[in-house]
């Protein structure tokens, strides 16, 4: 499928109404951005005022894991949901993604980088309590390490103990819910924790969330549910759908 | 109007990225391009939010920053779902083509 | 910062937390997903009902999550409309869950591909419970960024459910649905950015109460409205809906048509529930809604497949949800009553209709309207359910749909909006036409030549009938939901 310049040009000619519309849209957006209107000061001062009660000294972490922890709870579920949806898509035929040839360079790079990445992730997690960093950054690095391991055609995810992957993915959201409800059992609000015990809550929340996010990202990269040997029913024997819905 | 301050440049660039992404989403036929276009739109919004965080006063507002972090995770998840779904759609279309071809030969 | 009239209640979080837990557990314990799923569906339904009861008794409530009051923290807020929506989700959701238990069992029993159906059922329960939690979160949240996150949860789980059947048309429909929905979410998020820049808060009520139309805030409102209209599939944005709803698995069709559409519509209502907007552009959703009523009914009439007919009927009914927006400008509250009454009775009736249509499909192996004659003999309960639900969709007394349309026309005439009253009458006539086409085939006295063995379970038939009866009952117990709606 090669597109010659003439074809692109004709496509452009066909799409001039769209282009006009988008130019108008940008003008409207820019005008709305620049035009005078109510301008608020934001919440920076309020965050600072409550920072000591939050249990961490990093303002972004305090917002993410204390003031607006409910958003973060739902966000853990969004990642979990991504894995759920990707796994629920049935492979229509046996078209496994091409396994790249594991070269010597990749293997040695992997041996060098993966331990380092785990170390960096741990550091980011720890740093998150007083500077830039935190669960999602650490989770992203862990996910990257997972991707590197997957590239090396090692059936990493399938080699995990049966159910281990599923439990690992659920750990982050599950622990979040446990912490949230535990606060209620102690007569507080959902997700309510204050300094000094808030620090422990936040650090453990971040650690479990980072672990699960890393695992989810690597799983999403793999693209489908690993078919371990323990799984008796193979998708190759059943069709992708039946005509009775 | 104000001088060409950094916040002005970043804010307008964010909005421009949003519109460029929209152009890709509405104008491109290929699924992969459409999915990447939504990513560009999201990046534009994130830049816009970061500009808001820096725009108001001397203190940097951490709330839009946290919103961006959450938004990135949401966008990663939806992109992954979109890509996986696109693979399946393509596979289904390929099988459909094969089926059509087979039927064609039988008829002939 | 908070309104002193609101009391704090921990009941608000449970309709979200319970199904979230259920989604995790059904995902973890694959072999027990049906039992766990049904248990958590019943639990979520009970908690949703309990919340509505609380609100009816004690007035509107709020709940500061993490103990942080807005604008710093996120608060949940339940007034009459929110509680009514949670209640609607509880009822329709429970009926669909009971149907699903029988549905997957019947499918597995009549197929040799056990692995396929087990995998589908397993995925269904966790996605559906997560969707339930996200919808409740959407109805109860009072924080616009949190609403964005909830919207994304709704989108992704709906897309997963749409694609679950695995058929190529449903995969294509799911892809289209995802792209449209992502566009809607991103537009919404940019609007959130503009609002935050203007007001420095994310609390919805605070923003709406201090709303004044200036360029940035008008842009924010426009972006949010377009995003929500895309997700609600109002007329020019409806193109993705019929294939997605008609090709999905039956319980999924019922969920998408009965509940998911209402999520974004409800948010639209929350944002537009301000006096000054009606005077400015109140007619825009009404005109689009009117076009949807006529176009959807026309398309429904032309369909050959029952599920497609029901899906296009949804396109038309979404029109009713938006056509009434000019009526909200009136202060008597009758316009609100009409709008929400329509929403809840449509949820029950359309849910029942899709469930019955899916039962026909599973039994007959097709849903061609022409060839459905005689199905009445085989599935009397489902046929009766379809007929009862049809009463509500057409708006005949004594159904909930009748009350809604009566309120619509009454309010419209009171306000002198004659064209609106006529439009609603015309829409009812059109819906009667396409409904009659379906019902006359299903209830035709023609006998089946061969009488195949029954493959559907009783729970599938009776859950649809119960939902249809509730849609009918809504016409008789009208004062109760309207009293709940008044709480604010």
Explain the overall architecture.
The complex is a heterotrimer of chains A (245), B (108) and C (488). Helix content of chain A is 66%, strand content 0%. By secondary structure, chain A is mostly helical. Chain A has a domain at 52-91 and 103-223. Helix content of chain B is 86%, strand content 0%. In chain B, α2 runs antiparallel to α3. Chain B starts with 5 loop residues before the first helix and ends with a helix. With 488 residues, chain C is mainly α. Chain C folds into three domains: 1-142, no CATH class; 143-248; 282-488, no CATH class. In chain C, strands 1-2-3 form a three-stranded mixed beta sheet. The relative contact order of chain C is 0.10. The mean pLDDT of chain C is 91. Chains in contact: A-B, A-C, B-C. At the A-C interface, α2, α3, α5 and α9 of A face α1, α4, α5, α6 and α8 of C.
Descriptors:
heterotrimer, B: 108 residues, mainly alpha, Helix Hairpins, 3 helices, 86% helix, C: 488 residues, three-stranded mixed β-sheet, 20 helices
Can you give me a brief rundown of this structure?
Chain A has 245 residues and is an all-alpha fold. Chain A contains 10 helices and no strands.
């Amino acid at each position: 499928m090669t597109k010659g310049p003439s074809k692109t040009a004709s496509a452009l000619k066909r799409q001039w109404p769209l282009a006009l519309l988008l130019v108008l849209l940008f003008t409207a957006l820019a005008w709305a951005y620049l035009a005078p209107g109510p301008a608020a000061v934001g919440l920076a001062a309020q965050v600072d005022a409550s920072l000591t009660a939050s249990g961490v000294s990093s303002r972004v972490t305090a917002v993410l894991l204390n003031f607006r922890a409910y958003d973060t709870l739902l966000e853990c579920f969004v990642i979990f949901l991504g894995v759920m949806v990707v796994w629920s898509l049935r492979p229509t035929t046996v078209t496994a993604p091409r396994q790249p040839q594991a070269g010597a360079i990749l293997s040695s790079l992997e041996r060098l980088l993966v331990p380092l990445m785990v170390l960096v992730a741990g550091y980011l997690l720890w740093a998150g309590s007083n500077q830039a960093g935190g669960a999602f950054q650490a989770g992203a690095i862990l996910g990257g390490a997972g991707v590197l391991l997957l590239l090396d055609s090692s059936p990493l995810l399938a080699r995990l103990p049966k159910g281990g992957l599923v439990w690992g993915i659920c750990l982050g959201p599950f622990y979040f819910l446990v912490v949230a409800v535990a606060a209620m059992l102690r007569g507080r609000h959902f997700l309510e924790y204050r300094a000094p015990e808030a620090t422990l809550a936040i650090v453990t929340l971040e650690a479990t969330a980072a672990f699960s996010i890393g695992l989810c990202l690597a799983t999403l990269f793999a693209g489908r549910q690993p078919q371990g040997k323990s799984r008796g029913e193979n998708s190759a024997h059943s069709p992708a759908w039946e005509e009775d819905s | 109007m104000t001088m060409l301050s950094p916040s002005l440049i970043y804010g307008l660039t964010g909005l421009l990225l949003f519109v460029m992404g929209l152009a890709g989403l509405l104008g491109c036929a290929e699924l992969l391009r459409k999915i990447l276009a939504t990513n560009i739109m999201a990046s534009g919004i994130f830049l816009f939010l970061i500009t808001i965080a820096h725009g108001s006063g001397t203190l940097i507002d951490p709330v839009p920053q946290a919103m961006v972090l959450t938004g990135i995770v949401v966008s990663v998840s939806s992109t992954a779902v979109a890509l996986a779904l696109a693979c399946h759609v393509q596979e289904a279309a390929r099988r459909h083509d094969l089926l059509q071809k087979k039927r064609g030969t039988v008829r002939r | 910062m908070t309104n002193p009239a609101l009391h704090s209640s921990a009941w608000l979080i449970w309709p979200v937390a319970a199904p979230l837990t259920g989604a995790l557990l059904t995902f973890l314990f694959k072999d027990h997903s049906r039992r766990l799923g049904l248990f958590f569906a019943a639990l979520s339904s009970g908690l949703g009902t309990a919340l509505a009861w609380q609100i009816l008794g004690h007035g509107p409530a709020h709940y500061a999550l993490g103990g942080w009051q807005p604008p710093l923290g996120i608060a949940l807020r339940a007034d009459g409309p929110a509680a009514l929506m949670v209640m609607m989700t509880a009822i329709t959701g429970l009926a669909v869950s009971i149907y699903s238990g029988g549905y997957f069992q019947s499918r597995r029993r009549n197929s040799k591909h056990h692995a396929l159906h087990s995998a589908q059922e397993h995925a269904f329960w966790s996605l559906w419970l997560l969707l339930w939690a996200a919808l409740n979160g959407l109805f109860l949240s009072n924080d616009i960024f949190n609403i964005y996150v909830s919207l994304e949860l709704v989108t992704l789980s709906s897309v997963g459910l749409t694609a679950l059947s695995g058929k190529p048309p449903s995969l294509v429909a799911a892809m289209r649905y995802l792209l449209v929905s992502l566009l809607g979410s991103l537009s919404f998020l940019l609007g959130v950015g503009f609002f935050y820049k203007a007001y420095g808060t994310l609390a919805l009520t605070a923003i709406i109460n201090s709303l004044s139309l200036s360029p940035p805030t008008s842009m924010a409102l426009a972006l949010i409205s377009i995003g929500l209209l895309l997700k609600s599939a109002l007329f020019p944005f409806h193109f993705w809906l019929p294939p997605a709803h008609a090709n999905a698995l039956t319980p999924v069709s019922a969920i998408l048509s009965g509940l998911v559409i209402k999520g974004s519509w409800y948010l639209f209502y929350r944002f537009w529930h301000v006096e000054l907007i009606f005077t400015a552009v109140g007619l825009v959703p009404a005109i689009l809604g009117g076009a949807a009523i006529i176009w959807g009914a026309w398309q429904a009439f032309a369909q050959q497949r029952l599920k497609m007919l029901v899906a296009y009927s949804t396109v038309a009914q979404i029109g009713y949800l938006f056509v009434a927006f000019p009526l909200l400008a009136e202060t008597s509250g009758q316009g609100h009553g009409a709008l929400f009454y329509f929403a809840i009775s449509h949820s029950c009736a359309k849910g029942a209709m899709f469930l019955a249509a899916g039962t026909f499909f599973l039994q007959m192996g097709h849903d061609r309207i022409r060839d459905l004659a005689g199905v009445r003999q085989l599935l009397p309960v489902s046929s009766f359910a379809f007929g009862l639900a049809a009463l509500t969709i057409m708006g005949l007394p004594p159904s909930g749909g009748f009350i809604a349309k009566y309120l619509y026309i009454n309010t419209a005439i009171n306000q002198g909006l004659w064209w609106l009253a006529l439009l609603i009458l015309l829409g009812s006539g059109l819906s009667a036409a396409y409904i009659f086409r379906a019902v006359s085939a299903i209830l035709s006295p023609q006998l089946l030549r061969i009488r195949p063995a029954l493959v559907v379970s009783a729970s599938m038939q009776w859950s649809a009938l119960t939902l249809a009866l509730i849609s009918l009952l809504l016409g008789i117990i009208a004062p109760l939901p309207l009293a709940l709606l008044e709480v604010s």
